[in-house]
Write a structure and sequence with these properties.
heterodimer; A: 110 residues; mainly beta; 6 strands; B: 84 residues; five-stranded antiparallel beta sheet; globular
Chain lengths: 110, 84
């Protein structure tokens, strides 16, 4: 599950019949440096590849969501639908504490 | 399986029903020299991996669906084991 920020919506004109009633969001993956204050407000858009993800949770611009890609994105559906990215969770808080490189990591001798 | 370091956790009130009550940890993939490589992933945890512990994260959706006991769950990454 990748952590992305919703930056917009997409409306389809002509699409696959199984897409009827679907909601599509523009999800921009966040950089590791932005994860600390991720759910505070709109973050600057990163240079990473922006995805168009199917949405069934009702996320809006500025929300930080978890996007699952691949064949697992089709799992929630009873009918076959050609999608490969879906929103799975809307995050309220993200606690990010990376180990600083100079922190002495406890080495467990067997 | 991806060798990862747990670097945090995420809290979500509004998610897919199969993830309700599940612990979601931020896992930073590591390369061969245990240096961070790439962006952190969010993985479902059932083994109680603590902060800054090294874990194996699996990307197999079928195993993840068995883990959360829901055949319609879109979850993909889950923690398979905590490395001693």
């Amino acid at each position: 599950m990748r952590i992305c920020q919703i930056i917009g919506r997409v409306t389809l004109n002509v699409s696959d019949p199984s897409y009827r009633g679907g909601r599509w969001l523009l999800a921009n993956p966040l950089d590791p440096g932005q994860l600390g204050g991720a759910c505070g407000g709109m973050q600057p858009v990163t240079k990473q590849f922006t995805l168009v993800a199917y949405d069934s949770l009702g996320a809006g611009p500025g929300d930080v969501v978890g996007i699952v890609e691949g064949a697992e994105a089709m799992a929630p559906f009873d009918f076959s639908i050609p999608i490969d990215a879906i929103t799975v969770a809307i995050f309220d808080t993200i606690h990010y504490q990376p180990v600083s490189p100079d922190a002495a990591r406890p080495v467990h001798q067997a | 399986m991806i060798h990862c370091l747990v670097v945090g956790h995420a809290v979500s009130m509004h998610c897919h029903p199969s993830l309700a009550g599940r612990k979601m940890l931020l896992c930073q993939p590591l390369d061969a020299n245990k240096a961070p490589s790439g962006a952190p992933l969010v993985a479902v945890d059932c083994f109680g991996a603590g902060l800054h512990s090294e874990v194996f994260v699996s990307t197999d959706g079928i195993g993840a669906r068995h883990l959360v006991h829901d055949n319609k769950s879109p979850v993909r990454h889950f923690i398979q084991g905590v490395i001693d």
